[in-house]
Amino acid sequence: MLRGLAITPPVLGRISIGRVVEKNGKRLPEKDDEFTVTTQVQGRDGWITHPIDESLRGAVGGKLRSIPVWLPFSDPDLNLRASYSMFDRPTGRPLCVGNGETCRRSTAAGVQSMPCPAPEGCDLAASSGCKPYARLNVRIGNDDELGTFIFRTTGFNSIRTLAARLHYLRAVSGGLLATLPLELRLRGKSTTQSHGAAIYFADLTTRTGATLADALAQARELDASRRAAGFDQDALDHAAREGLALGVFEESAEEGGAVVEEFFPDSVAPGAESTEPLRPAVLGQKLANRVSRGSRAKAGSAPLAVEPAGT
């Protein structure tokens, strides 16, 4: 195999929560309150809808807020690959990818391994837009058992929820993630940082109408059937792990341009999911400002409006 080129799971299409729109001469991401399944081809108005999107919408009879899926791998970290990532915006090239302990960084002397303190403690990240970035690969339907649809996100809520679900489901199923009938589900919540507005994130659950016990029974049955047919899930996971390890970075410059436009813009459209925690220095300044306002109020100064937390 070619060294330096990551062999990633075959992708048949994309799953997104929103789209990129043009506002005031800038192309910015705009969140939605439903999923959209698209091809990997862009038209004049954006990504072209995948034929499976229409069939899924017909089944639910409304907005697409849940998608029945299967996972390609039994290893949670192969299905969901998350990292702190930084891209060069003009070219779309990955510049630095880390896990909070170590990172691979593109420098003038080549790609080097360095300590990774996570974005909150990295001087370079503060000025270059490093943040959590994840890709989830899932199968929709059974037409292509090795082909996947990819859901990309920089949403902290999506990344944390999906990671937790994958590890919990692997634990309770005895490692049978790849045969569990699951559902990618859209959930909403409001936070202080969103000023009470709804933000949407992805979750992974058993399918509507089925209990966890039902899903586990089906997973064991399907696993036994696959093994009898000669399907080697462990070997598939091993091949995927080796393929991903071949590359320094998972994204190429060719893919990076679209990733940067959608997930690493210069500014964020209203309603987008917050992805980065408030930096301690910023939080400290806000607290200092509030203490100062309180002191002035006690001294007889006119009261000032309280700044919403998390802004």
TrEMBL record:
Ranges where the record places region Disordered: 290-311
Organism: Ramlibacter alkalitolerans
Domain of life: Bacteria
GO molecular function, one term: hydrolase activity
Keyword terms, alphabetized: Hydrolase
Pfam families: Gp3-like (PF18897)
Protein's name according to its UniProt entry: Hydrolase or metal-binding protein
